[in-house]
Design brief:
mainly alpha, 20 helices, 2 strands, 74% helix
């Protein structure tokens, strides 16, 4: 027993030292790495706030049925993944700063459109703009982590990127219930001769408008393009026990989007990687259902006032657990870590099939968080590691591609499941709803395990078979 305690203490000490050295390594990076983290917090707050209340907005404020709302939600989410196929090339061609400003302009248009009206003629184009903006900014911010970090501390940079994303998600969760309980009446006012109104749910969208305006200020006045940063800033503060390597000199940033797309598509390694992402997609769909099913599920089982607080359990755990799990699994092979974590996350959904109640939701969120902390940051690191220099945004964007097909089906399926198994009135069988979702998510880890010898891009490249 004593030996076990000593061994555990040694592991904890090693993890703490490894993590601390990695964190110190981030301070050798340019200031832009911290600005990217801040932008990710703000964009995550805007994103999670919007998607958590979108099904509510469509059904309650716009009067759509569950099936129709699910279809709109699915089209919106699928469009986001579809546009990611193209915006990565544009971002790599434009340069990081111009690309971020372009994405923020589109995001602001979309957020303004859904904040001040429920007119479908305005709302639906607004959702289209939001889909483009999310598709633009999500892979772009992930690519920026690699661009502004040192190779040696890259895995810690992505670990912290995932942490700050969940800080934004946590803020969205804990503020959600407060906003809904505080703003219960519409706010009406006139602007440029127009009579406008912000409904209670739209107050949450207004928060996204304000974070977008703040992001403009940060990008315009403080963010520098990679080519304008001296190489010395990537290694000017040596850190004990951490060897920092300088970033490679930037490649030609003026390649056309079409040329970049052609180069990426001609790589055999890329297509094996895409198949790997395809097989991982079902377990990642848990988060899609968390946004389309979970909020209305909580409303209909009588836990409306707990929706945001219980949702916030997941990002709160992730904030503290991801850095630890990154340190523990940092020396393990990425593919194995991703497979293990996806098994845990997929299994978590089955907990909601045991019954309705706070205890089941809490247990589900805790187990989901543990699995997510194991595999999700390594997916970013894995993608960035195999991406050739100058094609980071393209690989990050294409890593989202398989979600298009899953989301296209998951949106309508969410509406059908809600209407038939968790309707606003009458009998319901929400346990069966979650069992069906959980069974579908287990497809991912099972196929990843079976096909690991062929699908592990990183290991095959090291062995020279790609």
């Amino acid at each position: 027993m004593e030996n076990i305690l000593i061994q555990d203490k040694g592991i904890i000490t090693r993890v703490a030292i490894d993590y601390w050295n990695g964190l110190k390594g981030l301070f050798t990076c340019p200031r832009e790495i911290w600005l990217v983290f801040l932008l990710k917090v703000m964009e995550s707050l805007a994103y999670f706030s919007s998607v958590l209340m979108l099904m509510h907005f469509l059904t309650m404020d716009m009067g759509l049925s569950d099936e129709m709302a699910g279809t709109v939600f699915g089209l919106f989410s699928a469009a986001m993944s579809l546009f990611m196929l193209f915006v990565g090339f544009v971002a790599d061609s434009m340069g990081i700063k111009k690309a971020m400003l372009g994405g923020l302009v589109i995001a602001l248009i979309g957020r303004l459109a859904i904040t001040f009206t429920t007119n479908p003629v305005i709302v639906y184009p607004g959702l289209f703009c939001l889909a483009v903006a999310f598709a633009w900014l999500i892979p772009l911010l992930a690519a920026a982590v690699k661009i502004y970090s040192n190779k040696r501390v890259q895995k810690y940079a992505f670990s912290w990127y995932y942490v700050v994303m969940n800080i934004g998600s946590f803020i969205a969760g804990i503020s959600l219930d407060w906003l809904r309980s505080t703003f219960t009446d519409a706010i009406r006012f006139s602007f440029l001769g127009m009579d406008l109104a912000i409904r209670p749910l739209q107050m949450i969208f207004l928060v996204s408008v304000m974070t977008t305006l703040a992001a403009f200020i940060i990008v315009i006045f403080f963010l520098r393009d990679r080519k304008n940063i001296p190489e010395a800033e990537f290694n000017e503060k040596p850190v004990e026990k951490v060897e920092i390597t300088t970033m490679p000199k930037p490649i030609d940033e003026h390649k056309s989007p079409w040329r970049i797309a052609k180069e990426v598509g001609s790589e055999k390694m890329f297509w094996v990687f895409i198949l790997f992402i395809f097989l991982l997609v079902m377990v990642k769909m848990i988060f899609q259902y968390n946004h389309s099913l979970y909020p209305l599920y909580m409303e209909r089982i009588g836990l409306k006032e707990w929706t945001g607080k219980l949702y916030a359990i997941n990002p709160l755990i992730i904030i503290f657990l991801v850095p630890v799990m990154t340190a523990i699994t940092g020396k393990m092979h990425a593919y194995k870590v991703i497979t293990l974590g996806s098994f845990i996350s997929a299994g978590s959904v089955l907990i909601l099939g045991l019954g309705e109640g706070i205890i089941f939701v809490v247990f589900y969120q805790v187990v989901l968080s543990f699995g997510e902390a194991v595999y999700s940051p390594r997916v970013y690191d894995y993608t960035a590691s195999i991406a050739p220099p100058g094609k980071e945004s393209s690989y990050m964007a294409f890593s989202k591609m398989p979600m298009f097909f899953a989301k296209l089906a998951a949106g309508p399926l969410s509406g059908i499941l809600l209407a038939n198994l968790c309707a606003p009135e009458g009998a319901r069988n929400s346990e069966l709803m979650w069992i069906l979702v959980g069974a579908s998510t287990l497809i991912s880890p099972i196929t990843l395990l079976i096909g690991r010898k062929w699908l592990d891009v990183e290991k095959r490249r090291e062995a020279g078979t790609l």
